[in-house]
């Protein structure tokens, strides 16, 4: 097994946020692999990278190329579903797919090891599979199996995806009700039961593969980036979360900063846990409201200000973001600002 690392010449934490790093060093994997459907694209990119003669270095643009091919395939599946639309309807759908589906807010992540590309691409193919199932007058069990597989791949992209089942399953339920009765004698109860059980198994398996370190990283960032910077009494909140109130001076720091108390076992996690964090939010409505509000605002845009998308050689300032082909995302931001 192998993993990739930033070249040692790039300082920490700028290596993570300032610029797009295209070349990574290939090193042995020293921990159990993190299971995600994104691994499908990474393995394919690794094969192409090796075929290109790169044995010790990995070019992230190979992964971007694989993501791009998958996006083209997803767009083809969506447009194929529009064959029964009028010419005007097809044109409108094509423009929407171009503006929304190819917006840089989504595609900028293609040249990265984030799990967003798998979420996005398998989400698109799941939607296309459901539409294809509905419009097919002779829907088959294979059509339903494709829906199931794509839903599992979507849920298995990252640990944050299982809650999306609350939207995906009703969408599928509404769609299946529109399948012509004479085309199938499927039992909807068995269908939904199988889908939910399969998706739950996939998400549970994904969760069990997350290392303890990854869990602690998310816990630290949730406290020091989402709780403390917005708290009128950081020390008291740290005490409620099972941490030393003196750590309030680290408010606003992330794990990727070398001086973070995350790296001192005596300082973190102490008695902090996800259970304590949940109990804190449930007993403090104001922070919970603030977190929800920030989450809604963040959902209106896929651009993350901390992640620059220029290469270092472009000579741009740290964390600079390109505005090329971002009309769809800019429109979301405009709606947020006007609201």
What does the overall shape look like?
globular
Give the helix proportion (percent range): 40-55%
Main β-sheet description: 3 strands, antiparallel
Low-confidence region ranges: none
Question: Using DSSP, what is the number of strands?
Answer: 3
**Structure classification:** mainly alpha
Regarding quaternary structure, how should these chains be classified? single chain
Which percent band covers the strand fraction? Answer: under 5%
Count helical runs.
Answer: 14
Mean pLDDT: 79
Keywords for this entry:
339 residues, mainly alpha, 3-stranded antiparallel beta sheet, 3 strands, 54% helix, 4% strand
Q: What does this 3D model show about the protein?
A:
It is a single chain. The protein is mainly alpha-helical and 339 residues long. The protein has a domain at 212-299. It has 14 helices and 3 strands. A 3-stranded antiparallel sheet has the order 1-2-3. Helix 6 (116-135) packs antiparallel against helix 7. The chain is globular. The N and C termini lie far apart (49 Å).
Secondary structure layout:
Blueprint: E1 2-5, H1 14-17, E2 23-28, H2 38-51, E3 57-59, H3 60-80, H4 87-101, H5 104-107, H6 116-135, H7 141-155, H8 165-176, H9 188-208, H10 212-224, H11 234-240, H12 274-283, H13 285-299, H14 327-338
Antiparallel strand pairs: 1-2, 2-3
Give a short synopsis of this structure.
This protein is mainly alpha-helical and 339 residues long. The protein has helices at 14-17, 38-51, 60-80, 87-101, 104-107, 116-135, 141-155, 165-176, 188-208, 212-224, 234-240, 274-283, 285-299, 327-338; strands at 2-5, 23-28, 57-59.
